[in-house]
C-alpha cells in the first residue's frame, strides 16, 4: 500500500518552506522568547494577545486557506514547517495556529465535494483571526452536542481550544435519527452560547480553551450531512504532520537547551557534559531528535508528492514523534537537575507541552487503535 | 537419604555464594528479626493516613493546587497546622525522644497513602521526617532529645515546629550529596570557627519545606578543598542571628510544599547546636576513620529518605492508575465503555502491576533499612519491647540523662564503630534502587493515565495531569536518578569488583 520506495520525491516547495520557516523563527525569537515564563502563567496571568495578533499579521492563519478566500493556498505541510519553528521557542502559539489550521482543514475537505463559498464568506475574520476547534479530541471519544436538523444546535462542546477568544468555531454535532455526525460552524459571539472559565491544563497554557454550552444556537452545516468522520480522517492525515512538527520542535528545543546547560554547569569537578553518563543521555536525545527529524521530513515529502498512503506515514510520524518528545523532554529536565523542574528554566514547560501535544487530534492510545483499524481496512 | 543433603557448613557457603540472603531477601530476614508489633504499627499508620486523606486532604487538594498555581508565594500554613493537630509530626518519633513511637517501617506506607492524594501536601510531612533522618545519624543524643521533644510539644500546642534538611548550594548539588564527589564540589558557603561556636555565610537553595520549617539541619564544610574530611552538621532554628529566608522557587509540581532559598549572613551557631564535627575525638579515634564515618552518615540519611521518595512516587503512580480506572468506568469510547476495550484493560493492568512492583521495591528498601540502616537499633526486639512497654512519664523522667555524653558515645559506638560495609551497601543500594525505579515507574503510570484519558486527562480537575507534574520531581531530588544508578553500582555491583573505579 502506502510507502512508495520507488517513487521519486520532488521538492518543489523548498523556497517557500525556507521562507515560512524563517518567518516563523523570526516571529518566535522576537515576540515569544522573552515572555515565555510570563505567557505560560495564563490563565493566572494575561494572555499573549499581541503574539496571537502578530501571527495574523504575518499570515499564519491563512496558510492552508485557498487564495480565493484570502489565503496563501498551501497545504498542512507548510503549516507544519511554521509550527516546528514556533515550537522550538514556545509551542503555545503553535497550538493556536494548529487549531485554526485544523478547523480550516475540515472546511477545505468539505469544499472538495460541496460549495462552501457562502460559508467562507460568512466568516468575517477569515484568515485574520484564528478559528476555534476541539484540537485535543477525536470523534470516537467526544461527547457531541445535538443538531436539530433545522439549523440549530444544543448541548456541550468540551475543551474548545480558542473558544474564549475566537469569533467562530468548527464543532461536530450528531443529529438524532441520522447516522454519524456532521461539522458545523457556529458564531461564538451568539448570545445562546455560555462559556466556562478558562480550562487549567497540563501544558500549552497560552493556548486557551473553554467548555461551551449551546442552547439552540444557530449553526451552519459544513459540507454533507453525516460526513463528519470522513472529513475528520482526511483532516487528521495532514494535521498529524502538524502535530508531529510541534512535538519535534519542542524536542529539538529541549535538546539544544540541554547541550547549552551541560556545557555551562560544573559538578564533580568538571563540566557535566564531560561526564560519560550525561553524554549518553545527550546522545539519546540527539538520536531521538534526528530520528524525529528524518521521519517528519519523510512524511512531509510524501504528503507534498501526494504519494499513495502518505496519510499513514503522517499519522505514524505524529504518534512516534509524540512519544519520542515526551521521553526526550523528560531527559531534558533530568540533565538540568533541580533547575530543570523550575519555571525559570525552559525545560519543565517543554515537558508539559510535549505531553499535551501528544494528545492533539485525540486520545493517544485510541489514535493507535484507529491507525491499525484503518491500515487493515486499506490493505484488505 | 535426601538427594540434596548438605552439611551446615556447606549450606552456609551456598547461601553466601550470592546473592546473599542479607542482600537480596530483606523482607524474608525481617520475618523473624522484626518485632511482632511492627505489623500492627504499619497497619495503624496506613489507617491514620487514609483517615487524614478522607477528612482533610481529599476534599480540598485540587482547589488548593490552583491557589498555589495562582500565587507561587502562597504557603500551606493551615495544612501544616492541621497535620500537627493530627499529631502526624511526632507519630514516628521514638518514645525515648517524646514521640508516639510508631515503628518506622510504617512511615513508608504512610507516605504512599498521603502522597496518593497529594504529593505536594504529603511532602510537608515527609520532608519533616527527612529532617529527622538527617539529624538522627549524628547520634548527638542531647540535641536530638531537645529538638524532637520540641516537635512533640509544639505540635500539642498547635504551632508545630518542623525539621528540614539544608545542603544544596547554587553551584554544588549532586556533588555535595555524593560522598565520593565531596572533594570536587564547588562549595560556595563559608564556615568559620569563632568563640563559642561558628559563623555561617552563603546561600543554600532548593530546600524542601525551608520556609515552613523551624529547625534547619544544615551541612557545612570547614575546608572546602577537603570537604570529605571536614563535614560539620548543625542546627539553626528560626530567629537565629544572621539567618533569613530568601526566594521561593517556582516549581512545575509538588506545589503544596516549598523549595526555598535560605540565607546565612554571619549567622552564629553556638557549639551547643553543633550536632557533629569531624574533629570530634570519637570520630578521629574511630578505627573506621572520619571519611568512612561521614560516608556512612550520608548513607544513613539517604537510605531512609530515598525509600521515602520511592513511596511518594508509588503513591502518585497509584493515583494515576486509580484516576484512569475511575475514568475508564464512565467514559464511552467508540460506542463502548472504555473499561470494556481490551487494550484499555491491558493498560490498566500494566498500571496496577507497576504500582504493585513499585510498592514491593520501596518496602524491600524499608526492610533493608530496618535491618542494616538507620533504624536497625530500634528494630531490635529488646529495644522495641523496652520502648513499647515503658510509660511516657518514664521517658520524661530519664530525659535529662539522655543528654549525657555517654549516651552519644554509646550510640556512635554502635552505629559508627560496629557498622559494616556490607550493611551500608545493602541499605544504601536498595534505597537507590527503590528511588529510581519507583520514580521511573511512577512516571510511566502518569503517562499511561494521560494516554487513555485523552483531553480530560489534560484538565486540572481530573487530577491526572497533576500526577504527571508531581511525579517528575521524584526522579530529580534526593539526588537525580542517574546518581542513584551510580550509587547502586557502587553499593551492589562494584562492591564485589576490586578493580573497579568510580566517577572516572
Can you walk through the features of this model?
The complex is a heterodimer of chains A (380) and B (504). The mean pLDDT of chain A is 95. In chain A, strand 2 (146-147) and strand 3 (152-161) form a beta hairpin. A five-stranded mixed beta barrel of chain A has the order 2-3-7-5-4. Chain A has a two-stranded antiparallel sheet with strand order 8-9. The longest helix of chain A has 37 residues, at 228-264. Chain A folds into three domains: 15-122, Butyryl-Coa Dehydrogenase, subunit A, domain 1, CATH 1.10.540.10; 132-227, Beta Barrel (Butyryl-CoA Dehydrogenase, subunit A, domain 2), CATH 2.40.110; 229-378, Butyryl-CoA Dehydrogenase, subunit A, domain 3, CATH 1.20.140.10. Chain A is α+β, with helices and mostly antiparallel strands and 380 residues long. In chain A, helix 4 (76-89) packs antiparallel against helix 5, helix 7 (228-264) runs antiparallel to helix 8 (276-304) and helix 7 packs parallel to helix 9. Chain A has eleven helices and nine strands. Chain B is α+β, with helices and mostly antiparallel strands. Chain B has a domain at 25-162: Acyl-CoA dehydrogenase/oxidase, N-terminal domain (Butyryl-Coa Dehydrogenase, subunit A, domain 1, Orthogonal Bundle), CATH 1.10.540.10. Chain B is built from 18 helices and ten strands. Chain B has helices at 8-16, 21-24, 26-33, 37-57, 61-70, 77-85, 107-117, 119-135, 141-156, 281-285, 290-330, 342-372, 381-389, 392-402, 405-417, 421-458, 464-474, 481-493, and strands at residues 163-166, 190-194, 197-208, 215-221, 231-237, 243-248, 259-270, 274-277, 332-333, 336-337. In chain B, the strands form three sheets. Chain B has a four-stranded mixed sheet with strand order 1-4-5-8, covered by helices on one side. A four-stranded antiparallel sheet of chain B has the order 2-3-7-6, covered by helices on one side. In chain B, strand 9 (332-333) and strand 10 form a beta hairpin. The longest helix of chain B is centred in the middle third of the chain and has 41 residues, at 290-330. Chain B is globular. In chain B, 56% of the residues are buried. Classes of the chains: A alpha+beta (380), B alpha+beta (504). The interface between A and B is large, with 48 and 60 residues.
